[in-house]
Amino acid sequence: MRKKIVAGNWKMNKNLVDTKSLLEELKSKIGDDTTAEIIVAPTFVNLSTASESLQTSKIKVAAQNMHQEDSGAYTGEISADMLKNIDVDTVILGHSERRAYFGETDELLSKKVNAALKHEMSIIFCFGEELQDRRNDNHFTVVENQLKNGLFHVDTSSWKNIVLAYEPVWAIGTGETASPEQAQEMHAFIRKTIAGAFGQDVADNVTILYGGSVKPNNAKEIFSKEDVDGGLIGGASLDSESFSAIAAAI
Ligand code: PGA
Q1: For the sheet containing 162-166, what is the strand order?
Q2: Which one, 18, 59, 174, 179, has the greatest CB density within 10 A?
Q3: Which residues share a beta bridge with 7?
Q4: What pLDDT digit, counting tens, does each position of 196-217 carry?
Q5: 37 in active site
Q6: What predicted TM-score, i.e. pTM, was given to this entire model?
Q7: Which helix (H) or strand (E) holds 240?
């Protein structure tokens, strides 16, 4: 079912002490009366603490990444089973920083998608074009290919566990946002692409988030667009004041 979601990707920020205090602040500021689904994604080492701290809260916890294998000799990696074992059943896959700095390809991501689905996890699947792609008027093709190569092998029934996050790379952490019109244009294209491959019902029900410099002062306008169902927030999710303001904007 199509939902309203505001998710905070903390990236490599917040040690244990800071994680605990941010979670306490969020619990008191966001409360349980929010109609949207609120998700936070702290770093791996603090996931367990976060999932315990949020046990009785409506705020959910997600991991920022995971490995495609269940276990084995993969030094430094984390599996779906390990996440589920600490009550984390949502994972962000394909973030542009994972793609750019850690060499994650569409092919690898398709395996991670399979692993997450196999373990009945929910996925926030990220994709988006670079500045050059947009300048070359190639952004729709790039996005379509990222979706096709990373995701389109799944069964129709798997879409209930998939949330999409369109994040133009040129807008991530740069202070530059896609205009609400640019976001809407791309989100409508994404929905149409999904409809073409999986049918209108799947397309109507998939939640599509926008990410890239969403702040309290622009969230409302972006979220008001028809095909924008919420946001994936980086920088502004590290502060309880701004993240709760964005959550309220939905
Ligand atoms: P930003 O990051 O809000 O800091 O631009 C968004 C993201 O990386 O998901």
Answers
A1: 60-61, 37-41, 5-9, 230-233, 207-211, 162-166, 122-127, 90-93
A2: 59
A3: 39, 232
A4: 999 999 999 999 999 999 999 9
A5: no
A6: 0.97
A7: helix 240-249
